[in-house]
Known about the structure:
By secondary structure, the protein is mostly beta strands. Helices cover 15% and strands 48% of the residues. The chain contains two helices and 15 strands.
Amino acid sequence: MKGLTHLVIAGALLLASATAAAEQPTAGQVDRVQGSATASQAQNARSLAAESALLFKDLLQTGAQARLAATLVDGTALTLGEDARLLIDELLYDPSGGQGKLLLNVVAGAFLFVGGKIEEAAGADVAIRTPVGTIGIRGTTVWGGPIDGGYGVLVLDGEVTVSTTGGDVILNAGQATMIFDPARGPFPGYGWAQEKIDRAVETISFAE
């Protein structure tokens, strides 16, 4: 009888967790997966595949040699490299206009961000938190992740502000920075060698 009680309690907890996840609004959809990728809400993890729904407050995670490409409801495109973790922390999008907000928390790994319609709203607030600081977004395609013993940010289009506890730097298209110690701030913007750009892009590229 005791064992049956434990099973009933465990089943109720699983149902409650699944119900809580189902109540979260849809944040987007997976476009493509290479290797293993999951989305989790509290202790409830879901395996991801093409066309899987992403929910608000999902923690996205990829495995070794994995890649994940997804599109959020406003058209923002995200690509994650291997062993990455990203939380969809805040998402406010009204297709009819008005203020929009998007906050992503990149806990680990490399990412590529291509901005969507939220950025077009007046007073929009779009930012990416990283392990070393925050990237403020404006009409942007930006790569970020560990590289060459530090944390790199490379702007392919638009403009970003990279902020750490030690200072800020504004980067425009074609510029990049490195952060080795957040307390010392990011390096001034400069152009990476093509070889380094290629290595950065490789971290979020799918195998053909």
